Amino acid sequence: MQSNILIIGGNGLVGKTIARILGSRNPEVNIFIGGRKGGKSQNDLLIDVTKISTFKTIVEKNINLIVLSVNDKEDKVLRFAIENNIDYLDITKPTPDLRKAYQLAIQKPVNSRIVFSSGWMGGIATGLVSFVSKKMNTIDEVRLFVYYSVKDLAGESSAHFMAENVAKPFVNYKDNQPVSIKHFLDSEYFDFSFGIGKRQAYNFDVPDLYILNSIEKIPTVNVKMTYNSKFITWLLGAFQSIRFFNILSLKERKMIFGSSGNGDQSVFEIIIKNKSETKKISLQSLKGQAELTALSATLHVEELLKNKSENKVYFSHQLHQPESLLKSLEDYETINIKMDS
User: Fold this and answer.
1) Which SUPFAM superfamilies does this UniProt record tie to the protein (predicted)?
2) How far is CA 136 from the centre of its chain?
3) Exposed e or buried b per residue across 214-250, where buried means at least 16 C-beta atoms within 10 angstroms of its C-beta
4) What is the pLDDT of residue 259?
């Protein structure tokens, strides 16, 4: 059967990268690009997530799967996919939006595959946790440490998220209790792999906190992040300590977080503890977070194309056999993975 896949937000950095990776690995797939300005090709569709009237082309083009790589605050595309029995994959949502969309989806009758992924790195971190520990319910604690380079080629969405949320509290989890915290506080030193070395890492919000605790029932989950520049990392911590972000406008905060380089590595490391042992898995993406996010989305799409999963609501890691997911990552030429006990 012909697979018609629509990438909404396909003209953005991550959307373009998904189209490139997905098309190169699956040349038989017909890929449509949805954007607010349309395009010159018959596969370029005018779709604005704020205007439901533009969605009629989704049915006209017999789209089998929608990949959402642009922020849809009101979940109009999600509702349309459910109402029209179209498979749906969302890789965009920060934690509050993900929680809201998930609750919306599970309260509706679903006759397609509705898949939510973390808005950070396409949900691949939770997939790696499931590989390291075959039974999620035996894990007592997961700690995630993130290394982000200001030289990384980044899209607008990550900068916009930080600008909107840097002054707002979020939660991590301690013994199943939500603990209210803020970005760039509570630093600790962590010795990163891949030659990075010891760095100060600060509180950081990713949707995997919610997924690992509320969905996979892991009692203690927290995430910390460092920048490649020690000075920038320290400066952001200092700004948060004196509540400097609180007095800045959204536009001014966007200027702080909106820089994008020409490309650099992105690294994250996961510490997984149970009563008897501690394990660590480390991932390095030589082409940065946009490439890794797009690869993650592609791997999720490929699982959906196999048509093995039943119609219901998923989180993206639930589509995969953990061993197959790890092998797909290891086989990708710009991904390096290390594991330690």
Assistant:
1) NAD(P)-binding Rossmann-fold domains (SSF51735)
2) 20
3) ebbebebbbbbbbbbeeeebbebbebbeeebbeebee
4) 66
Whether residue 157 lies inside any domain: the answer is: yes
DSSP 293: H
Which amino acid type is present at position 254?
K
Domain annotation covers residue 64: yes
Distance CA 73, CA 232 (A): 30
The DSSP secondary-structure symbol of 236 reads H
What stretches in the chain show pLDDT beneath 70?
A: 1-2, 155-157, 259
Contacts for 105 with CB less than 8 Å, ≥ 6 apart: 78, 82, 114, 116, 313
Q: CB-hemisphere CA count at 13 Å for 223? A: 22
CATH number for the domain harbouring residue 30? 3.40.50.720
Q: How far apart are CA 153 and CA 259, in angstroms?
A: 9
Whether 310 is in a domain gets the answer yes
Residues in contact with 6: Cβ distance below 8 Å, sequence separation at least 6, in sequence order: 31, 32, 33, 34, 45, 47, 58, 61, 63, 65, 66, 67
- The mean pLDDT value of the chain amounts to 93
Task: Classify residue 146: in a domain, yes or no.
Answer: yes
- Is 32 within 8 Å of 61 (Cβ atoms)? yes
> What's the pTM?
0.94
